[in-house]
Amino acid sequence: MRLEKCWFCSSTIYPGHGIQFVRNDAKIFRFCRSKCHKNFKMKRNPRKVKWTKAYRRLHGKDMTQDSTFEFERKRNRPQRYDRINTEKVLQAIPKISKVKATREKDHITKRLSVGRVNRRTEDRRELEQSISLVKAPSVLKEDATLTLPKQKVTVSYAQTENTPMEE
Amino acid sequence: MLNVADNSGARKLMCIRIIGASNQRYAQIGNVIVAVIKEAVPNMSLEKSEVIRAVVVRTRKELKREDGMIIKYDDNAAVIIDQKGNPKGSRIFGAITEELRKFRFTKILSLAPDVL
After folding, report:
1. What's the ipTM?
2. Which of A31, A43, A123, A151 could make a disulfide contact with A36, Cβ separation 3.0–4.6 Å?
3. pLDDT attached to residue A127
4. Which of A15, A24, A28 sits opposite B75 (nearest CB)?
């Protein structure tokens, strides 16, 4: 039993799922579900279809290069059964997938953090500029609690005014 | 019209009948059929409008396996055989499924370039 990858969306195909299409040149296309199969029949390029892994990797949305991918590479050489090795592998698999998942999540968070910062500055700017739509500026000046949490420095003009000009 | 997946000399076959099934309408992978040659390569042992037997090796209709695997090919193809089940040609073209092993077409499987 082997868990294959869907040719179109790159998700894993579990046994009993999906269709395999064999082209006349003996190339096998495996699909995880009819959605992918139908898109293939429409001759769509997975690199241009937004929800596929191929698109996401190509456009930098998902992590492409990482050491955790090395563990999952297909090796065509059959390995002799070694009990200790198999046990170690079985113990390592959940650890590796956990590390991989956190790394992928961090990659996406990092990519989206720029947008978060931008949105916050935009919001702040909008608040400063358009606060008059909510309350009249004169009202805001009278009631100190309604102002934006800015640091206000009060300048006392009284002293400077009363000082007589030197003649 | 089936393609011919070997080098026996025929190119296209038309299925007339399925051997061993009285009312079966459609042949599947592994069925032996009686076919007439509709198109042949010139100057070879088989000629056009000759009635021969063939075994279906590839179908566009999905083949379902017990483990849930579904395989679909790009064309319908057959390999021409004699009365015993030995292929008439010496080479087979294209991928062949393991299903033929159940029907005891071992010679075809051994000649196939790719077995799924």
Report:
1. 0.89
2. A31
3. 86
4. A24
